[in-house]
Amino acid sequence: MKVNRIIPDIAVDDIDAVREFYSGFLGLSSEEFNLGWVERFTSPDTGASVQVLTGDETGQTNPVASVLVEDVDAAFADAQEQGIEIIHPLTHEEWGVRRFFVRAPDGNVFNIVAHPE
């Protein structure tokens, strides 16, 4: 699996309540991605990112990180072949990504995701 980027996912109760901290204090722009339940804050200078979410729209749990991969179908096949626990099936989401969730042996959940062309 080729990983292009990993973005921490931080669960929050209210995105509006934390926006100023991430965009103001940390200096991250909030313009990159906002679906209401998840928002990505990114540095315009370095590309460093963090996502905050109130609750995943279709997943059963909130992931700790989103792992952007080159080929999500190949990553899904690898996860199945290796017997990794898949807790959200490979899905083409209505907001344009194709993704699935896996649980690491330590219990952390990861969102494995790609933006189809």
Automatic annotation (TrEMBL):
SUPFAM superfamilies: Glyoxalase/Bleomycin resistance protein/Dihydroxybiphenyl dioxygenase. It holds the Pfam family Glyoxalase. Transmembrane segments: none annotated. It comes from the Bacteria. Residues 2-115 form the VOC domain. InterPro entries: Glyas_Bleomycin-R_OHBP_Dase, Glyas_Fos-R_dOase_dom, VOC_core. This is Glyoxalase-like domain-containing protein. It comes from Brevibacterium linens ATCC 9172.
